[in-house]
Amino acid sequence: MSGKPRLTYLNGRGRMEPIRWLLAAAGVEFEEVFLETKEQYDKLIKDGLLLFQQVPLVEIDGMKMVQTRAILSYIAGKYNLYGKDLKERALIDMYVEGISDLMQMILMFPFSPLETKEKNLDSIKERATNRYFPVFEKVLKQQGQDFLVGNKFSWADVQLIEAILAVEEKIPAVLSGFPQLQAFKTKMSNMPTIKKFLQPGSPRKPPPDDHYVETVLKVFKK
User: Fold this and answer.
1) Of 129, 144, 162, 220, whose CB is crowded by the most CB atoms within 10 A?
2) 22-77: per-residue pLDDT in tens?
3) Which GO terms of the molecular function aspect are on file (predicted)?
4) How far apart are CA 196 and CA 25, in angstroms?
């Protein structure tokens, strides 16, 4: 095995996508193993690789890490994306948790029944424009800087640009009332490591389609 982190998940976004984003933003190359069958997943459990019988699984620095938040925290700390002190880390944690609440709605959207999809999309738009994006618009304006915390690129910035692009895929004009976020999106998208991740052929996964939903249900069926 090479020294690269090894990511085990399905060939789609899900709970692994923020991990891919963070590694890519840090300029870290990684390898991926894609689960396609329930047998592969069951073997990981049988072999004792999944502490809580859940993926994502990330093998890094001799550890077999599970639990998305723990993995992200480790990567952020390892690559100096987690603030300079406890206060900055607390701010990053708050912002990340807020963004994660919004991303959870987006994560579950492909699995919602057809008859509720429009209602769920309206909920995502309402939460994004009235609860979450106004917070970050205000923070950026008050900071008067390019980044959310300490005028330095951090995990929170990575989570926010991922969320902005994910919401825009569903609601293209969602940033129309948020000039600070529009500028933030432009700035982040042109950072070399992120720009590379946004190019075709990168490890970034496309929006979930029916095949991805079917694979998730097949791999994780009880």
Assistant:
1) 162
2) 999 999 999 999 999 999 999 999 999 999 989 999 999 999 999 999 999 999 99
3) glutathione transferase activity
4) 9
**Can you identify the CATH homologous superfamily of domain 6-79+198-220?**
Glutaredoxin (3.40.30.10)
**Topology (CATH) of 86-190:** Glutathione S-transferase Yfyf (Class Pi); Chain A, domain 2 (1.20.1050)
Per residue, the 3-state secondary structure of 124-153, as one string, reads HHHHHHHHHHHHHHHHHHHHCCCCCCCCCC
pTM: 0.95
The pLDDT value recorded for residue 2 is 57
What DSSP letter does each residue of 140-204 carry, written as one string? HHHHTSSSSSTTS--HHHHHHHHHHHHHHHH-TTTTTT-HHHHHHHHHHHTSHHHHHHTSTTSSP
Where does the chain hold its CATH 3.40.30.10 domain(s)? 6-79+198-220
At position 135, the amino acid (one-letter code) is V
Cα–Cα distance measured from residue 183 to residue 120, given in angstroms and rounded to the nearest whole number: 28
